[in-house]
Specification:
single chain; alpha/beta; Isopropylmalate Dehydrogenase; 10-stranded mixed sheet; two-stranded antiparallel sheet; 11 helices; 40% helix; globular; binds 3-isopropylmalic acid; binds manganese (II) ion
């Protein structure tokens, strides 16, 4: 029997609760589909940091590299200064495992309330390919005369030809494989960021020549935020840098119904990838069994797809759609009409019942 070794980092706040439901669903689907998932838990996160002063212990990254995938809950603790855990755990894994793609689908499922007037599931179905190892996130820059009236703060955006090109290539390939509108939009700011996005734009149109079947399209980031609200149906696949990708995917999450459903994958196509719900640790809901686990469950589905278990991944998505379409009242914490664990039970039940006949992605 095929088996996969998964490192699980439940993390902080609601992380452990939603990851538990994700593992429940993944276990159910693996039994039905005939493969095995070996989960190995790691306690990285705020609690461990407060006890030991350590974000990632010595050797942790080397150990993580040996797994087939990593399944992450949430990182962020109210008693830890912002930045320490994010940089020390989340960004460190993304960077050091060279997970250079952050893949974030924006898809409105049936039954989910959309804040946009007159828009439905047929209008909102696109994917953002966010560069995940460069740009403003590398921590380049520094202070001069810190704390004085003459203070200077510099934060540099690093964009390498190699980094930009591999991200853009991934996006073209993904768009081709997705086979929907076959349109790839570069989200940039070529009118102001005339160095960084000059490189992005040149690379984008150069690589476009190798993909005559894909329509290469461009939009400025500010305009993109406008179109997400006004005409989300225009988009198929969007490629962008780290910072813009971070910002537009929160807006994307809102138009697909909120953080309760938004999942993402930190992908290294040649290495170990990490899958996570994109909402934070939501400490005020921690331990209450009220948070929505669907984002974590969907992240588990993305993980299956990347492990090559495509049919089980589609099945998981169908089961989620059944739950959003016919069961839960709202995606918001405490308003689902079900508890966190009951939502997990429902999805686990449907992945078991539905497993015959689902062979393709919707
Ligand atoms: C995300 C988060 C992270 C990011 C933070 C927590 C560092 O907002 O995954 O989108 O900015 O990438
Ligand atoms: Mn973000």
């Amino acid at each position: 029997m095929k088996s996969y070794n998964i490192a699980v980092i439940p993390g902080d706040g609601i992380g452990p609760e939603v990851i538990r439901e994700g593992m429940k669903v993944l276990n159910a689907i693996s039994v039905r589909s005939g493969f095995k998932l070996n989960f190995n838990l790691y306690d990285f996160g705020g609690e461990r940091y407060l006890k030991t002063g350590e974000t990632l212990p010595e050797g942790a990254l080397e150990e993580l590299k040996k797994y087939d995938a990593i399944y992450l809950g949430a990182i962020g603790h109210p008693d830890v200064k912002p930045g320490i855990l994010e940089r020390g755990i989340l960004l460190r894994i993304r960077f050091e495992l060279d997970q250079y793609i952050n893949l974030r689908p924006v898809k409105l499922y049936p039954g989910v309330d959309c804040p946009l007037k007159d828009k439905g599931p047929e209008d909102i179905d696109f994917v953002v390919v966010r560069e995940n190892t460069e740009g403003l996130y590398i921590g380049g820059g520094g202070f001069l005369k810190k704390g004085t009236q003459d203070e200077v703060a510099i934060q540099e955006s690093i964009n390498t030809r190699k980094g930009v090109e591999r991200c853009i290539r991934f996006a073209y390939e993904y768009c081709r494989k997705r086979n929907k509108m076959k349109k790839l939009t570069l989200c940039g700011k070529t009118n102001v960021l005339t160095f960084a996005f000059d490189l992005w734009e040149r690379t984008f149109y150069e690589v476009a020549k190798e993909y005559p079947d894909i329509k290469a399209d461009y939009a400025h980031v500010d305009a993109i935020t406008m179109w997400f609200v006004k005409n989300p149906e225009w988009f198929d696949v969007i490629v962008t840098d780290n910072m813009f990708g971070d910002i537009i995917t929160d807006l994307g999450a809102m138009i697909q119904g909120g953080m309760g459903i938004a999942a993402g994958g930190n992908i290294n196509p040649q290495g170990v990838s990490m899958f996570e719900p994109i909402g934070g640790s939501a400490p005020k809901y921690a331990g209450k069994n009220v948070i929505n686990p669907l984002a974590a469950i969907c992240a588990g589905g993305m993980m299956l797809e990347y492990l090559g278990e495509e049919k089980p991944a589609y099945l998981l998505e169908r089961a989620v759609m059944e739950v959003t379409g016919k069961y839960i009242k709202s995606l918001s914490a405490g308003q689902m009409g079900y508890s966190t664990s009951e939502v997990g039970d429902l999805v686990a039940k449907f992945v078991t019942q539905f497993s015959i006949g689902v062979t393709q992605k919707l």
